[in-house]
Write a structure and sequence with these properties.
The complex is a heterodimer of chains A (675) and B (336). By secondary structure, chain A is α+β, with helices and mostly antiparallel strands. Helices cover 40% and strands 20% of the residues of chain B. Chain B folds into two domains: 2-89; 116-333, BirA Bifunctional Protein, domain 2 (2-Layer Sandwich). The chains are: A alpha+beta (675), B alpha+beta (336). At the A-B interface, helix 2, helix 6, helix 9, helix 11 and helix 12 of A face helix 6, strand 1, strand 2, strand 4 and strand 5 of B.
């Protein structure tokens, strides 16, 4: 909203500098975005919040300034309403089909006008407030919209067939050519005005071309309505047309200004375009709307604001803003009965009044205190921050945290071999680059890797964030689990595996295992799934070359991808102390010959299950292949540590164990001791 | 020898000094140093000690001058012995087999970096945790009901314009704020409540240096039976001082949000640009929002705030372009 200072000064004395005034306006809730100097004029660019349509007017801003600077608001002659008598009568019939569509409606007809350009003072004011002057009749409606906040429209009376103005809801498929020459299809149930034959106005948004003012116009119909704001807003959104008028009509307008605007409009037309009044001054009040009486116990103001503001001060503040105040002498606690002025239809509750008191009193004068209430003790307040610990851990391993875009393009979805139809997408993307909700963290990581390859040889990245999967269980929301994924350049399969294990160690996650797995994203025979208590919680492997090429990445890349929701629910700080061993351990090495495709993990598992709790540790330390071992054979050397919590193991104890283990290895893996 | 005998005391002293210093300089073991110390300075028969003993026999004027000289020489010999000893202790100038050039480049462990947004969010979490706030997290694809309607933004509310929205379906959208998490939390927890909810939010804005379709937001909520606006302003000021430094300037002014009443915004003064920067919106929770989650507004009051970690990080670290946060450029990330 552009507000010229000279215009404001007609309604309130201002002695502050523009900067001082801007500061005062800001503190009380009217933000000054910019102060522009145009010659001798100063124009404020104000950001008006949607609850304050009254401030979408010079008068409204002046009233606000009067309140915050302790000045009188000047009710000038411009705001006094005179009675008028028609000199000739031009017939006009007004009909509002549903009162809710247009609860207030003022109309007057003026005959014998001369359409011409406006006087310079008027044209200049319009320009300074950001509007283009056209013809006097149109300029007058714009001028008054800026001054009083009430949009009006002037019709060419002679183009209104049957002299009927019928306000009604639109029906499906109706169209109108508006003033700007565009043909617009109206959504059903928006407000239109028609004459006997045709729609002449897209109410609240723009007038029709078929009834517009031209230099030939002799008789004018001026109307000043208050429409149903919801319908205006819906129509404005549906046809993407937002005008100065619709920005006001879609809010709760002053219940009196429409009348003042119409009267002033009439006066100005008579003055600037000549002519004479040619109809009754029609004022239809279709729905009575009474301003609320709000009981305001002062104690409540103190409790919400946290400071005691005296009754006098509260009364002064509210009256300066135009509120009517009655005292309730019989109330147990000091209570005011407050009625907001016609232009403050946003005020309904005592909380609303509390805000008025607070913002005018000045929030920067409030003492700074910390909460004095009870501190919550909900169970979830004490959960460890697993995310932070995980991120710290990965940083310690040399990985860099990145945040990729959640919205990605179709190409990126296809590259990771996911069918775009099996993803979640937004209905109204701004651009096709941000359309699909990422089904994986991988595209973002690979894009980042690709970007960094120009500057870095070794790159290690990770991201922790949500991915999105269509929900098949009938819930309205898609599934959106958190994932933890990382990529490292080079042939670092075992480093990545170690990193995952070390993370599990930190989070006290046990009972996990790795199994070979085939997956389109990874190279054949170079990937594993990660299991936790038999459920899959992720995967790791060397990424597929064609996938990497599609992101312009050269060289090998190892990846891990974990379901962080499951990690989160399995992580724990519970640790059970194990008494330190009292008896010595016995270590020995077994060199086994097995088939080449035997997994070392399975051998270890067999050793542990055959040896039971006495096998406290077993790890391979050497693997080699040699034709002398036999075709498709390999040798694996495994070191085993035996230990009992109850006694020192004898040679014989170990021998019994070893035989059990060898038997099991032979049975399950055809493994034999190397000669 | 005869010539020596004919020297006066001062000459004898100087001769002793130059000879001794030479010997100290060529001594290359602790043993030799110790022997020299005894030979020169030994209490009974050290060479210098003996010369000292001859002093009283000299005429007064000569005695005075020679005495002074003898003392100076004693000091310088002691010093030279000590220095030599220390030199030998440090290896005597020899490069040992185990010598390390401590200025050579280190072998670094792999060094990773925490994203600046994570850093700011963690700092904020710590500050609020100190004040009893728990961090909570929730869905990013959210119901319109939770993102808007329960926060008093019905379908036709003009304030929806301020938060242009991505829709997935009629009822499901990408949350424009983390407030739905406040609703979800209040539905399941009784006051007193103190939570913060950092997370991603989405706005359908044109993309530029300060706008992206997705960014981070952090909201906070407190509900109990005695809080007030002074607590809200107090906590927010406390937060700004912890995050930006004790001397940061802040100011509060009136604003409008449909879900808070009264509503405020806070700005911090940015010294570098000499500008006030808006960093958060806040207010007392509207009684109808409390009613929507079955909390009695006659008994309880609450306040809430929302701020952008992207904005906080940009101010905190002097970053000029929001896009740096999301493209994964290591040249940027490695600075944190």
């Amino acid at each position: 909203m552009l507000v010229p200072l000279s215009w404001l000064k007609e309604y309130v004395d201002i002695s502050l500098t523009p900067e001082e005034l801007a500061e005062k306006l800001l503190v009380s809730g009217t933000k000054v975005e910019d102060i522009r100097r145009q010659g001798e004029e100063v124009v404020f660019d104000l950001e008006i919040t949607p609850n304050r349509p009254d401030e979408l007017s010079i008068v409204g801003v002046a009233r606000e300034i009067a309140a915050i600077t302790n000045r009188e608001f000047k009710v000038t002659s411009a705001l006094t309403i005179r009675n008028v008598q028609p000199e000739t009568i031009k017939p006009i019939e007004i009909k509002v089909e549903k009162p809710l569509l247009c609860p207030r409606y003022a109309v007057v007809v003026i005959d014998g006008v001369e359409v011409k350009t406006s006087p310079e003072w008027l044209a200049k004011r319009l320009e300074r407030a950001g509007m283009r002057p056209l013809y006097n009749l149109i300029d007058i409606t714009n001028y008054l919209m800026l001054e009083l906040g009430q949009p009006m429209h002037a019709f060419d009376y002679d183009k209104i067939v049957g002299h009927q103005m019928i306000v009604r809801a639109s029906r499906k498929g109706e169209k109108i050519v508006t003033l700007d020459g565009a043909e617009r299809a109206m959504p059903e149930d928006s407000i239109v005005i028609q004459d006997r034959d045709k729609i002449i106005d897209l109410a609240g948004l723009m007038g029709g071309e078929n009834s517009e003012i031209t230099p030939k116009t002799k008789t004018v119909l001026l109307h000043s309505p208050i429409y149903d704001p919801v319908r205006i807003r819906r129509a404005s959104k549906a046809i993407s047309l937002r005008t100065e008028a619709s920005a006001r009509f879609e809010k709760l307008l002053d219940l009196e200004a429409y009348l003042a605007a119409a009267r002033r409009g009439l006066d100005m037309i008579l003055e600037l375009a000549g002519g004479e009044v040619a109809s009754e001054f029609i004022n239809e009040v279709l729905i009575p709307i009474e301003p609320p009486n709000i009981e305001l116990p002062l104690e409540k103001v103190h409790k919400v604001l946290g400071i005691k503001i005296s009754e006098d001060q509260v009364v002064n503040i509210l009256s300066s803003l135009g509120f009517t105040i009655n005292f309730l002498p019989l109330a147990n606690v000091p209570t005011l009965n407050v009625t907001p002025p016609s232009w403050r239809r946003d005020i309904n509750l005592l909380e609303d009044l509390t805000e008025e008191v607070g913002r005018i009193y000045g929030y920067n004068k409030f003492p700074l205190t910390l909460p004095s209430g009870q501190v919550p003790t909900h169970e979830d307040a004490f959960h460890p921050d697993w995310e932070r610990r995980t991120k710290a851990m990965l940083k310690g391993f040399g990985l860099n945290e990145v945040y990729g875009h959640t919205l990605i393009n179709q190409d990126a979805v296809k590259k990771i071999k996911i069918d775009p139809s099996e993803t979640v997408k937004v209905n109204n993307p701004m651009s096709s680059d941000f359309e699909y909700l990422r089904p994986s963290l991988l595209p973002g990581l690979l894009q980042a890797l690709s970007l960094n390859q120009r500057f870095y040889k070794e790159i290690a990245l990770f991201e922790l964030g949500r991915i999105f999967i269509p929900n098949e269980k009938g819930s309205k929301l898609p599934e959106q689990p958190k994932k933890l994924s990382g990529i490292l350049t080079g042939n670092k399969f075992y480093q990545v595996k170690g990193l995952v294990q070390a993370l599990f160690e930190e989070l006290n996650i046990k009972d996990y295992s790795f199994e070979p797995s085939e997956n389109d994203l990874y190279l054949p025979q170079q990937a594993a799934k990660i299991l936790l208590k038999d459920g899959v919680i992720g995967s790791l492997g060397m990424l597929n070359q064609s996938l990497l090429q599609s992101f312009d990445i050269k060289g090998g890349v190892a990846n891990f991808d974990l379901d962080f929701e499951k990690i989160h629910s399995s992580a724990t700080d519970e640790v059970k102390y194990q008494p330190l061993p009292k008896y010595p351990a016995v270590e020995e090495d077994l060199a086994l010959v097995v088939n080449k495709d035997v997994l070392v993990g399975n051998l270890i598992a067999t050793i542990k299950s055959a040896g039971g709790s006495l096998v406290v540790w077993a790890q391979p330390f050497d693997v080699y292949e040699d034709l002398r071992l036999g075709l498709n054979k390999k040798s694996i050397a495994i070191r085993i540590k035996y230990q009992s919590p109850e006694k020192t193991l004898t040679d014989n104890d170990v021998k019994v164990l070893r035989q059990k283990i060898l038997k099991a290895l032979e049975k399950e893996h055809e493994g034999v001791l190397r000669e | 020898m005869e010539s020596v005998l004919t020297l006066n005391m001062k000459e004898k002293l100087n001769l002793l000094k130059s000879k001794a210093l030479q010997e100290i300089s060529s001594a290359n073991s602790f043993e030799k140093i110790e022997n020299l110390r005894i030979r020169l300075l030994g209490r009974k028969s050290g060479e210098l000690t003996l010369l000292f003993q001859g002093l009283p026999k000299l005429p007064l004027q000569e005695r005075k001058e020679a005495g002074q000289l003898a003392n100076e020489i004693k000091k310088s010999l002691e010093q030279a012995l000590l220095e030599k000893e220390n030199y030998l202790k440090k290896g005597g100038g020899k490069v040992s087999k185990n010598w390390l050039d401590v200025t050579a480049p280190a072998i670094l462990p792999p060094i990773g970096h925490t994203h600046p947004l994570t850093r700011v969010i963690n700092e904020a979490k710590d500050i609020f945790r100190y004040l009893g706030f728990t961090s909570v997290d929730g869905p990013e694809a959210e119901l319109d009901e939770y993102n808007f309607q329960k926060l008093l933004l019905h379908k036709d509310h003009p304030a929806r314009d301020v938060q242009s929205t991505y829709y997935i379906s009629e009822e499901v959208l990408l949350r424009t704020q983390t407030s739905p998490m406040q609703i979800r939390y209040m539905e399941r927890h009784k006051p007193p409540i103190r939570i913060i909810s950092p997370g991603r939010v989405y706005r359908r804005d044109a993309i530029d240096a300060t706008h992206l379709p997705g960014f981070f937001q952090m909201e906070g909520l407190l509900v109990d039976d005695q809080t007030s606006l002074t607590h809200l302003i107090g906590v927010l000021t406390f937060f700004c001082k912890r995050l930006f430094g004790e001397n940061v300037k802040t100011r509060v002014y009136g604003h409008h949000f449909p879900y808070t009443e009264p509503s405020i915004e806070m700005e911090v003064y940015h010294e570098k640009s000499k500008k006030w920067l808006e960093i958060l919106g806040a207010g007392m929770v509207h009684p109808n929002v409390l009613r929507n989650v079955d909390i009695d507004p006659e008994v309880y009051r609450g306040w809430a705030f929302g701020m952008g970690p992207d904005r906080l990080a940009m101010i905190r670290y002097g970053i000029d372009d929001i896009r740096h946060f999301y493209n994964g450029d290591l040249r940027f990330l490695e600075q944190f």
